[in-house]
Automatic annotation (TrEMBL):
Residues 9-102 form the Pyridoxamine 5'-phosphate oxidase N-terminal domain. This is Pyridoxamine 5'-phosphate oxidase. One of its GO terms (molecular function) is oxidoreductase activity, acting on the CH-CH group of donors. InterPro entries: F420H2_bilvrd_red/Heme_oxyg, PPOX_F420-dep_Rv2061_put, Pyridox_Oxase_N, Split_barrel_FMN-bd. One of its GO terms (cellular component) is cytosol. Coiled coil: none annotated. Keywords: Oxidoreductase. The keyword Oxidoreductase applies. Pfam families: PNPOx_N. It comes from the Bacteria.
Length: 133
């Protein structure tokens, strides 16, 4: 993917309210999950429960696919792009939560507050995704 293509895809995905994040099981089967994303430079940030299936799948298979979707995960439009995900450390996860809260306004801040009240940093983790060819 050229720098221009990567920039265009990052901008396109960052404009979406929901993105379908496909992670892969050890046997290669994809599992789609609708997520909020927020752009941070050349990466898209996501947050998730620390013990969620997508986090477990990313730990052993960092390859992911991203497509615009609705809140139920139904693909809406645009191309599917591939990327490489990595689980963030505590400081990176806190940064991801702040960037996502800012991106989603009042709803994002309320969601992060509720997450914090339910165990927050100990229960959630940030994920950074870099687009690839």
């Amino acid at each position: 993917m050229t720098v221009v293509d990567e920039e265009a895809e990052l901008a396109r995905l960052d404009a979406e309210k929901y993105v379908s994040l496909v992670t892969f099981r050890k046997n290669g089967t994809g599992v789609a999950t609708p997520v909020w994303t927020a752009r941070d430079g050349t990466e898209l940030l996501v947050f998730s429960e620390r013990n969620a299936g997508k986090v477990k799948r990313i730990r052993h298979t960092p390859r992911v696919e991203l497509t615009a979707c609705d809140m139920l995960g139904k693909k809406t439009h645009g191309a599917t792009v591939t990327g490489k995900a990595r689980i963030l450390d505590d400081a990176g996860s806190e940064h991801a939560r702040k960037v996502i809260a800012r991106r989603y306004g009042l709803l994002g801040r309320v969601t992060m507050l509720l997450s914090r009240l339910r165990g927050g940093p100990q229960r959630t983790v940030g994920i950074a995704i870099t687009l690839s060819d």
